[in-house]
Amino acid sequence: MHDFNYHKATNIDEAVKVHQGAEDGTYMAGGQTLLPTLKQRLASPSDIVDIAGVQDLSSIDVSNEVSIGSMTTHAAVASSSEVLSAIPALAHLAEGIGDPQVRNRGTIGGSVANNDPAADYPAACLALNATIKTNQREIQADDFFTGMFETALEEGELITSVNFPKPDTAAYMKFPNPASRYAIVGVFVAKFGAEVRVAVTGAGDNGVFRAAEIESALAGSFSPSALDNSTISPDDLLSDIHAQSDYRASLIVTMAKRAVAAAS
């Protein structure tokens, strides 16, 4: 691990100010990705701004939409009766992330900002048409995820909350890696009136993406059987030690069918 300056922020303005004054600063939320990369010397920031103590970022508010503060842990989302009532699929997703230790440290903002290609929350954001709010602006999920581990966030920009519209119905199904619980393939399906949005994580070689073919089939008939003749091209899918691209292509349709069945 390389040397760095550690700062524990108590409010958003302080966190942003310290980051702006750093030579090469980075924010730390739950530290689930940052700490391992520091230990392996894969990252060497000059300053780490710890935002775990910023109380304004840990909140769940449910009204016309579900607003979750960026420092809210996965465990808090999973156990929230408000989230479970408004968007059950979101609570179910959070409950399936990692293990109890990860769920009690990891945060929604950290997951979304990191945009790991096998993370769960990016699929929820994309399928539910979420709005990612920062200290500077609001970004629609369709514009936020720009590539593997890449987002539309600018240098020093800090996510403050993620806001989810309430769907008519939704569900998330994933085929998890048995060790890490990361998604080998995860599919989130959400229905808003006549519109159906389907997002896939764990499979794309450029990160999370929307499955237009599945969306089109489900818009005509929101039922698992509507996907009986659906196929996904393996051309832009990942191949690794866990699964080849053609297997992931098949899993996408299978997980989508299961999600639709659960949502129905």
Indicate the low-confidence ranges by residue numbers.
none
CATH architecture verdict of the largest domain: 2-Layer Sandwich
CATH class category name of the largest domain:
Alpha Beta
Shape category: globular
Helix content: 25-40%
Largest sheet, order of strands side by side? 4-5-10-6-7
CATH topological fold name of the largest domain:
Uridine Diphospho-n-acetylenolpyruvylglucosamine Reductase, domain 3
Distance between the termini: 49 Å
The mean pLDDT is 96
Q: State which percent range the strand residues make up.
A: 25-35%
List keywords for this structure.
alpha+beta; globular; 5-stranded antiparallel beta sheet; Enolase-like, domain 1; 14 strands; Uridine Diphospho-n-acetylenolpyruvylglucosamine Reductase, domain 3; 264 residues; 33% helix; single chain; 4-stranded antiparallel beta sheet; 11 helices; Uridine Diphospho-n-acetylenolpyruvylglucosamine Reductase, domain 2
Structure explained in plain terms:
- This protein has helices at residues 12-21, 34-39, 74-79, 81-86, 88-95, 100-105, 108-114, 121-127, 141-144, 212-220, 245-263; strands at residues 5-8, 25-28, 47-50, 60-62, 65-69, 131-134, 138-140, 145-147, 150-151, 159-165, 169-176, 183-192, 195-201, 209-210.
- By secondary structure, it is of the alpha+beta class.
- It folds into three domains: 5-50, Uridine Diphospho-n-acetylenolpyruvylglucosamine Reductase, domain 2, CATH 3.30.43; 58-165, Uridine Diphospho-n-acetylenolpyruvylglucosamine Reductase, domain 3 (2-Layer Sandwich), CATH 3.30.465; 169-263, Enolase-like, domain 1 (2-Layer Sandwich).
- Strands 4-5-10-6-7 form a five-stranded antiparallel beta sheet.
- β13 and β14 form a beta hairpin.
- The radius of gyration is 18 Å and the shape is globular.
